UniProtKB/TrEMBL annotation:
Listed name of the protein: Transcriptional regulator, TetR family
Residue ranges of the annotated DNA-binding region, renumbered to this chain: 32-51
InterPro entries from the UniProt entry: Homeodomain-like_sf, HTH_TetR
Keywords assigned: DNA-binding
Residues in HTH tetR-type domain copies: 9-69
Domain of life according to the entry: Bacteria
GO molecular function terms listed in the Swiss-Prot or TrEMBL record: DNA binding
RNA-binding in keyword set: no
Length: 221
């Protein structure tokens, strides 16, 4: 790696780790360019030499908070005997962790970044390549896909090998599951309902299981 690349990578890491520390101490909603610059030992304007927008730096830092989810995901997938069951299990894992850290998951999967997120994910893993260690080839494509709709649909599409499911059904069912999660996470963040993380996760999964019941009944025939 060229000296310039090493320097840039080091600077990116300085700012990301400073942002992670601030999120841990003050919450993601209280992060600012000024605070990050002070924590990293640089002026806030220096940040924009490496990140187009503050939201991009927050996105990178948020990725540091999903390790537990990514580590548990293979275990949840292994619980399913069919791809429909694996799909449901993957949502169970996602809901468990996302409602524990709703602001982090909103930053990763809902917030407007003004840039293609696949480019940002590839950039992130080029800096933190060690985050990929230990994941199977079944999991890695999901890690690289920042779009919640397409990454969840990938598992459901594999269910077509096990039963006759129309592509439009997969598209619609998957989109409705994503919309259920987005609606609930937004409700929690806006404090429209007073729900504990486990309650929000359980309620979301109940709706998702209801959406999936016709596909599960199809497998039972």
């Amino acid at each position: 790696m060229a000296r310039r690349e090493i320097q840039v990578k080091r600077m990116l890491q300085y700012f990301v780790e400073a942002t992670v520390e601030l999120i841990e101490e003050e919450g993601i909603e209280n992060v600012s360019a000024r605070k990050i610059g002070e924590r990293a030992g640089y002026t806030s304007s220096t940040i924009y030499n490496y990140f187009d927008e503050l939201s991009h730096l927050i996105y990178f830092a948020s990725m540091r908070f999903v390790k537990e989810y990514l580590q548990e995901l293979p275990e949840y997938l292994a619980r399913g005997n069919t791809y429909v069951e694996k799909y449901i299990s993957s949502w169970e894992c996602f809901c468990k962790h996302s409602f524990e850290k709703p602001q982090i998951y909103h930053a990763l999967y809902i917030a407007d970044l003004g840039k293609k997120t696949d480019e940002m994910v590839n950039h992130y893993f080029s800096i933190y390549s060690s985050d990929l260690i230990g994941f199977t080839d079944e999991i890695k494509p999901m890690l690289y896909d920042p779009d919640l709709t397409s990454r969840s649909k990938a598992l459901l599409e594999l269910a077509q090998k096990e039963q006759d499911i129309e592509a439009t059904t997969i598209e619609e069912v998957n989109e409705m599951c994503v919309l259920i999660w987005e609606g609930m996470i937004t409700t929690v963040l806006n404090k429209r309902r007073d729900m504990k993380p486990e309650e929000a996760a359980e309620k979301t999964m109940r709706y998702i299981r209801n959406m999936m019941s016709p596909l599960q009944e199809g497998q039972a025939r």
